[in-house]
Amino acid sequence: MPETKPEKQIAFEFQLELIKKELDILNNCIDKIDTVTQGFKNWTILLWSGSVILAFGKDATEFQGKYLLTAIIPFLFWVLDAWWRRIQREFIFRNNKISDFFNSPNFAQSFQQNEIIGLRMYDLRGSKSGEKQEYKRFTSLKRAFLFKTVGVFYLGLILISCGLYVYMKFLI
Question: Measured at the alpha carbon of residue 166, what is the angle toward residues 165 and 169, in degrees to the nearest 5?
Answer without folding.
Answer: 80
